[in-house]
# Entry
Amino acid sequence: MPAMKLARVILFTAQIDTMSKFYGEVLGLKRVTNESKWREFAAGSTRIALHSGPPSPGRKGPKIVFYAKDVAAMREKLVAKGAKFGKVHEGEFCLCDGKDADGNPIQLSNR
# Structure
């Protein structure tokens, strides 16, 4: 049996237009579908799907990790566009946690 590959991450949101702007304009991902209650963005071979509706009770959503060869430089670029990220942490690998426009956890990592 071949290894499974991530096809998409689905985020439920009450702010589909704000979230679409964040993933499309701020992070620069290409929108591949544009339905009124469902939008998908290409993130390499994976897709991030936004579904209009409330999140699961007690959960804000999964953490979505984006690869960045130079985490600090990518963080600066995204923060300048309005993204919210904390400090860059360096060790065995470099990472930086943030949140998208709906408060879901995201991360930049060179791992």
Notes: The first helix runs from residue 16 to 26. The beta strands are 8-13, 30-34, 38-43, 46-52, 64-67, 84-90, 94-99, 105-109. The chain has one domain: 8-109. The chain is about 20% helix and 40% strand.
